Amino acid sequence: MNIEEMAEEFLVCPKCHNNLIYKIFKGKEILICKTCRAYYPVEDEIPMLLIDDAINIDDSINIDDSD
User: Fold this and answer.
1) Cβ atoms of 41 and 29 closer than 8 Å
2) What pLDDT shows up at residue 64?
3) 3-state secondary structure of 65
4) What DSSP character marks residue 58?
5) Helix, strand, coil fractions of the chain, as percent rounded to 5
6) Is 41 in contact with 48 (CB distance < 8 Å)?
7) What pLDDT, on the 0 to 100 scale, is given for residue 29?
8) In a 3-state reduction of DSSP, which class is residue 3?
9) What is the full DSSP assignment across 17-55?
């Protein structure tokens, strides 16, 4: 099972517990929480789902488009 399938079926945001969306953004794999407006990096196929690892999405980043 790949990260995209895991995100759809099992993974949730550690902060708000809503679904995460898998994207490739600027060549990097990320999991996005649209509710929290944050994303979590994926490193070597391992999702970094610690609240401290969340990166806030500012308005200049279009999270609806992939690379």
Assistant:
1) yes
2) 66
3) coil
4) P
5) 15, 35, 50
6) yes
7) 94
8) helix
9) --B-EEEEETTEEEEEETTTTEEEEEETTEE---GGG-E
